[in-house]
Design goal:
Layout (H helix, E strand, L loop, with lengths): L5 E5 L9 E2 L2 E2 L28 H27 L4 E11 L5 E11 L6 H15 L7 H63 L1
Antiparallel strand pairs: 1-5, 2-3, 4-5
Helix pairs in contact: 1-2, 2-3
Length: about 200
Amino acid sequence: MIGSINNSFSALSPIRAVGVSNGQPSSRTDVSVESVAEPSDQKVKTLGDPTLTESEEREVQRLKRRDREVRAHERAHMAAGAGVVQGGASFTFTRGPDGKIYAVGGEVKIDTSAENDPDQTIRKMQQVKRAALAPAEPSGTDRAVAARAGQIEARARQEKVKLENAERSEEQNERQDVDSLQASTARRPYQSDTTGQALNVMA
């Protein structure tokens, strides 16, 4: 869910059987491997099977490409997101005309929460952006997560500037106090001598 501590971004828009999108339930059903297992008494078609029509074979080839794209997409997120990606990738599956299960969508969870220190937050958000934009073709959700991380990073940089300005101001005040003390100490002997001389004249 975007905006929470544990945020997720989807790999690619699923072809079908999408159960969750951006953390919100959808009207479709999330299909798992177990839920779409073939009954033992049903004949499973395979690619090249004469019972597969030409359109079914094209669909199988398309699903195979989709499966490779989705898995590569999520691997890219995870490889670039060390330290901010939480857990492994989760996938949404569909069953092809050949009876096999193919991944048609996926997501990884990523932590976009700010740290207590601005520098740590800046480094973390840079890592989040790298993870979100790592795939060759980032999805719209991936780009949204990267944009969100950029906003958090910008706020952290502003906070860092404020802290640095406050530290410089404090240092300047301390130097002014030291200079004032030194100047006051330097004036005291002169003022004492003048006072003594005045007293001598008056006497």
